[in-house]
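Design request, tokens follow.
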């Protein structure tokens, strides 16, 4: 099964890319659209372009920390991809997490009205390309100790984001598929033996 996250909102700090995939089911509990494909059923590995969330909440480096925190609260996210607008698109230049704001800005008693995103964002970026496999992304997350990986073009243009939560959703769906296969085999075996 291939999983695509539901399109949420579009604002000046969010963008949505078309997924071009037919939807066969929607889980209201997880907010995930599920689509079936023969490649996924047959075990062909999925890549970052297929699993990334293309609804990305982003910030610019000149935003205040207050604006960034308000954006996180409004959009219900724990991180913002920091971008710089360019002719070719939004170039990823950093990441800002709620933890960055809490530890760097608040614990050191900086003024969130004057401190800018560019002052505290992480610039040691871990990014993936659309063709990177799930295993590649998991390895990146493990090695670098991150839970969110922006997906970019070869020019650094933002395409989407893969989160550890997204990966766990995929793993859970795959495990459900294995369980269904085992149950189906057991039912078949019972019918054959009777």
């Amino acid at each position: 099964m291939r999983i695509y996250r539901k399109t949420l909102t579009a604002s000046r700090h969010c963008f949505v890319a078309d997924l071009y995939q037919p939807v066969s089911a929607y889980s209201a509990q997880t907010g995930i659209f599920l689509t079936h494909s023969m490649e996924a059923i047959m075990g062909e590995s999925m890549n970052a372009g297929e699993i990334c969330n293309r609804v990305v909440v982003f910030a610019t480096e000149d935003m205040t920390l207050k604006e960034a925190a308000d954006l996180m609260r409004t959009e219900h996210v724990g991180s913002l991809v920091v971008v710089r607008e360019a002719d070719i698109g939004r170039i990823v230049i950093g990441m800002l997490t709620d933890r960055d704001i809490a530890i760097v800005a608040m614990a050191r008693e900086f003024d969130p009205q004057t401190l800018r995103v560019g002052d505290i964002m992480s610039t040691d970026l871990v990014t993936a390309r659309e063709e990177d496999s799930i295993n590649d992304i998991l390895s990146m997350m493990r090695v670098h100790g991150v839970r969110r990986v922006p997906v970019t073009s070869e020019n650094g243009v933002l395409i989407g984001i893969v989160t550890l939560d997204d990966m766990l959703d995929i793993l859970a769906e795959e495990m459900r598929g294995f369980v269904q296969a085992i149950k189906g085999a057991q039912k078949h075996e019972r019918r054959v033996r009777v």
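Comment from the thread starter after seeing the answer: thanks! The CA atoms of residues 1 and 37 lie 6 Å apart.
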